[in-house]
Each structure stands twice: as C-alpha cells, then as structure tokens.
Amino acid sequence: MLDHAAAVAAGAGHGQLASETAGGIGLTGQKIVEEGARALLLVVPGILRIDVRPLEDGLQVIPRVLGDMPLGWELDTSAMSDYGRTAEETRLPALVAFRLAIWDERQPLAGRVVVSYTRGAEHGPTHFSAHAIIQQVSADR
Amino acid sequence: MREVVLTVRADELEEVLDRLLPLLPQGVHETPAPGGAVALTAFGPGPSLAELGAAAGDALLSAGEAVAPDDPAERRLKLLAARPAVAGVAVRPSGAAAPEGDVLDVVIDAPDGAFGAGTHPTTAMCLELLMGLEPGGAFADLGCGTGVLAITAALRGWGPVLAVDHEALGVEATEANARRNGVELGVVHADLLELEPPPAPTIAANVPPAVHAHIAASLPDEVRVVIVSGVAEEALEEVVAAYGRLRPVEALAGRGWGAALLVRDA
Q1: Residues 54-93, chain A: which have Cβ within 8 Å of B?
Q2: How far apart are the first and last CA of chain A?
C-alpha cells in the first residue's frame, strides 16, 4: 500500500524525496509558496496529499485523502512554535506538527507530519520544509 | 510572467485540485467567482492551457491565459482587486481601483503579520453575516485585526464602534485604515482574555475558541447579536453552545472554517 517508488515519482517535480522505512514510508519535501496560493507539499499517490497555503498572518495545512478511507488528523500542540510570525518577528523557522491516521480496513496507517516554515516580510513567499513518516499499523491498535 | 486562470464549479473544487496541483508545483490561488464558481489562478511556467483545462475536466467553466506582473507584490494586488464583492461589500487595498456599481467600498491595507485583509475565510464569513444585519447602535469588533469589520460597521451606520485586538500591529493598522475610510473608531489594544466584553448590542468576535469561551462567560445582557467566527468548522457547535441563551439563526462554513450569527431572544 505504501509505495515509496511511486511517491518518489509523484513528488519529483515538487521537491519531495521518499524512501522505505521500517513498516512504512518516509517523506521529505520543500517548497517556496506565494501568499494565498495552495500548493502540494507532500504526496503519497493513491493515499494522501498534504497541501499548504500561507495566509495573511497564518498558515493552512490541508490534508487530503486520495481515496474513500476516513482520515484522522490532529494538531500536535506540543510541537508548535512561532506560528504565524514573520521572519522579522522571529529569526527561527516556525514549526507545526500533526498526527494522522487513515482507517483502511485492510491496512490502517498512522503517521506524523512536521512542517517548518519561514515567511518573508511584506507578504513575501513562504519557505516550507516538511518531514513525514507514515507506517502501517495492525488493525487492532 | 505567465498567468493561467481556470474557472471551475465550486462543488467539484477538491476533485479538480486533485488533478491540477500535481501539475502546478507553484500552487494555485482560489478566488470566488460569480455564480458560485471558483477561479483558480496559477503564475509561472507549466503545462499548456489545453492540458490544464483537460485536467479540470467537466468542472471547467472557462479558461484563459494572460501576462501577469513579474513583481509578486503587483500580482498580489491584482488578485486582491479581482475578488468579487461579498454580500455587497468589496474589501480592497488602497492601491487597487474602487469597485463599480452599488457596492460598499472598504479600503484595507494590511501590514505583514496583521490579520484581516479580508482574504481569510473567517473574515469573509463575518462580512457576509454583518452585511445581513440592520445597522444601529453600538458595535464592537473583538479581535479586529486590521479593522475590516469595525470599519464596515461604521460605514454602514453602526456607532459608536469599538475595535479591540491584542496585537499592536493590528491596532496600528486599524487606526490607519479607519483614517483611510473616513470613519471614527474607538481602538483599544488589549488582551481579550483579560477584558470584559463591552455592552454593545452587536458584537463580532473573530477569535479562537478559548477567547470565545471567555467572551461567552462574561457577556453583558445588553449584547443582543453576536457574530461568532475564527473557529474550525468541527468546533463551531461547541463554541456556539457556550453562548447559552443566544440562539444561532444562521451558520456558514467554508475551507474548514465555520461562523454563526447568534441572537438573544427578547
């Protein structure tokens, strides 16, 4: 279900790298996005896409399941810093993290996504760097 | 710089994006278009217009290509100016042309980091609910950002109008935007978690759930109407419930956000 080669191919034009990890897949992606634009940041073909949209003083991270499986998605508030601050307000990249679960009956998936970003001043583009690990879990977990 | 605009049906937006975003690494700007459609604008190189139109499939209503300014700031201004009026109010930066027709013209310049240039879905939903109300009496904009709601209320006839925000940048922007629009506001720099809500009959609160909880718990009896926004769609019901005796009469949702209009029964 988690095909890292397909993720490499799908992400090639999007600054994404992918590899097989123990029981799953590892993804890293990077992109520069203009304010207000919604752009693909990470993708696992047929399973999940994660988009980002820098908006005014904040950020939207938009998960999209590429199938009929229900998605569980929650913000990991313990891993959030400098949300919505510009590079002029903080000299460090801002950080936001999420936990996800995809409820496929045959092979449920669970994962974590970490997105760091820096917004330029005066409505400039936002630098994004993302890292996700998605793993297969047993159906009874 | 190349600019491509595809206008698609809003009810198929996510499916269209499933096919378009992999083709457009730079991403797309979504803008409401007349007739319930959405205009998707992409700047820069990419597949041909025919290929993008084919990817949009049956949801495609129109497609066009133009030359956009190379300067990102000019492109942003152009996009902001192209937004249609929401419920009879057009919010535009001072560099953009005034809207034509019978539309309330609200000029908002948003310094980077200040919330509320009118582009955020929560602001747009507040505007839609606000424009449906009959103006009169005092109005308070809690979490005013750049002052969009307070200024719109003042232009429509509410008064006196109070605007409150905890961000100094937002307070400064609100004061400057009030001058741009020729309205008088009482602008207060304060933490809404430490402030008692003012006894204004109409309040707009575009704030996170924790701030709503504080406002709801200390709401004066004089408050008759509350516009609730700034809340994720799935959290709206719980936030509205905290307002107790105020009854929801209208709810809006979009792009993951929810807003509601609450009224106090006599």
Answers
A1: 55-58, 60, 62, 64, 66, 84-86, 88-89
A2: 18
